[in-house]
Amino acid sequence: MNQTHTRAIEALQPFIHLANSNSATSPRFIANIITNATSHPHTYVFAELLETPTIQSLQSPDIPPEYQGYLKLLEIFAWGTWQDYQATPNLPKLSTEQTQKLRLLSLLSLATTIKPLTYSALQSALSLPDTGDLESLVTSAIYSSLLTARLSPSSNPPTVNVTSVAPLRDVQPQSLGKMITQLTEWEARCGEVAQDLEAEIEAVKANAAIRATKENSYKEMYDARVKARKQEAGAPGAGGGGSGVGSAAPAARRGPLGIRRGARGLFGGNKREADDIEQDDGFFDAGDGMEIDEGAGSGSGRGNGSRTKRVLGGRRG
């Protein structure tokens, strides 16, 4: 419970005891209780005092007319405003303390109903023609912990920026039915919102489960493919040698003239010519074919000083 509300209830207790005492029998005594309770600087709630049989006895038609208005006055202090007091005839005249108290209580109600809370609106509702009186009233409410607010006289229009209001106004009995209806509707809306949230949560869980299933399936497929690739790579003969591009061929033997020995068909000739290439190591010139100059006296028996040429791998002329 708010500390300000607790202090207000404690401040009202002596007046409740007086109303419940045996001496509270005359209308004048009851009227004095109401006057003193509403004038006390720390009393801001009056529902408990209103509920006492002594205070309710003022509704009797036997009560003198000058005291009949005190019950209505206490009701205005409990849940009414300054405007209600001015609009109700035959009410007792207020003292300075009661006037200040009723304006403070009215300020609490106005702070929760008027948006924005401008100077002009407050001055009209509280019958305060002077701006200084309004600022003094608001400052008093702030120091009494009735509300948390900040004055903004330089804003356009000048306003009172209220951030919190103490729960010090009583609830009018006639408004309980309306409040119960509003609370019931609010409870129904909260139930609908809760159901919608639960449905959303279930949908999110279902989607998450579907995603998890797909991810597990993809992972199993990936693992199976990786395993199959590894098995293929480790199979016998897989990726081995052969006559492909990557296989290493033995180095060819080459003769003194750089001609690879044993390479038959290298120059497009027949087997005999290839054998001649393997056997002859003489000087040759590359022409239309490949010629081997055997030189003079090579043992071919074709004459003295003559040179014999043999054509290998080309056309013979």
UniProtKB/TrEMBL annotation:
InterPro entries found in the cross-reference section: COPS7/eIF3m, PCI_dom
Compositional bias segments (type: Low complexity): 246-260
Entry protein name: PCI domain-containing protein
Gly residues compositional bias, start-end: 236-245
Positions with biased composition (Basic residues): 307-317
Segments of skewed composition (Acidic residues): 275-294
Presence of keyword Membrane: no
Keywords: Signalosome
Record region (Disordered): 229-317
Record keyword Secreted present: no
One cellular component (GO) term of this entry: COP9 signalosome
PANTHER family xref list: COP9 SIGNALOSOME COMPLEX SUBUNIT 7, COP9 SIGNALOSOME COMPLEX SUBUNIT 7/DENDRITIC CELL PROTEIN GA17
The family this protein is said to belong to: Belongs to the CSN7/EIF3M family. CSN7 subfamily.
Organism lineage: Eukaryota, Fungi, Dikarya, Ascomycota, Pezizomycotina
Domain PCI: 4-165
